């Protein structure tokens, strides 16, 4: 029995995760190595590695995913804030730094960390169940390899 069978998928649901981007249900293709930020039914091209001190490295010395606060600028602006942010960190999963987690939590948003493929599947399910206003996703392409 499929209880969500007649529920339309959100237009920002992820159809495909590529090594250099994403294809969304609405036909939008985010490519060229960009990640995507899905918030409140909107899709944004997202390159957090550009803000990471200009070095392109997002892993700290402890192997934790650590990015500056300015990569979350849209989360500061959107109202109402989503309940949950699903982070897809590429082909692998990394722990996030305490500073990154604390900042996201200070916005009143819970965070869940997964590899990008599983994060996209979870976003699709939760956005369909709860609505796009309650869940957001920040996804790194699966071709990202840590400190590239």
Search tags:
three-stranded antiparallel beta sheet; alpha/beta; 4 helices; globular
Order the strands across the largest sheet as they lie in space.
Answer: 5-4-8-6-7
Q: What structural class do helix, strand and pairing data support?
A: alpha/beta
Mean pLDDT: 89
Please indicate the percent range of residues in DSSP E strands (runs of 2 or more). 25-35%
Q: What is the distance, rounded to the nearest whole angstrom, between the alpha carbons of the first and last residues?
A: 44 Å
Low-pLDDT residue spans: none
Write down the overall geometry.
Answer: globular
Overall strand count: 8
Counted by DSSP, the helix tally is 4
Q: What does this entry look like structurally?
A:
There is one protein chain. The model has no long low-confidence stretch (mean pLDDT 89). Helix 3 links the parallel strand 6 and strand 7 (110-114). The chain is α/β, with parallel strands linked by helices and 148 residues long. The relative contact order is 0.24. It contains four helices and eight strands, in the order E-E-E-E-E-H-H-E-H-E-H-E. The strands form two sheets. It has a five-stranded mixed β-sheet with strand order 5-4-8-6-7, with helices on both faces. It has a three-stranded antiparallel β-sheet with strand order 1-2-3, covered by helices on one side. It starts with 13 loop residues before the first strand and ends in an 8-residue tail after the last strand.
């Amino acid at each position: 029995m499929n209880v969500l069978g007649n529920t339309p998928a959100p237009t920002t649901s992820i159809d495909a995760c590529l090594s250099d981007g994403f294809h969304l249900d609405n036909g939008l293709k985010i490519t060229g190595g960009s990640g995507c930020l899905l918030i409140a039914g909107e899709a944004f091209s997202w390159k957090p590695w550009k803000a990471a001190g200009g070095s392109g490295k997002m892993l700290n010395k402890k192997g934790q995913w650590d990015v500056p606060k300015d990569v979350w600028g849209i989360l500061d602006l959107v109202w109402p804030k989503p309940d949950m942010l699903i982070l897809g960190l590429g082909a692998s999963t990394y722990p996030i730094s305490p500073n990154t987690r604390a900042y996201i939590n200070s916005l009143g948003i819970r965070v869940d960390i997964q590899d990008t493929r599983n994060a996209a599947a979870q976003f699709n399910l939760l956005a369909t169940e709860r609505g796009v206003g309650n869940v957001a996703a920040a996804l790194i392409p699966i071709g990202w390899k840590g400190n590239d």
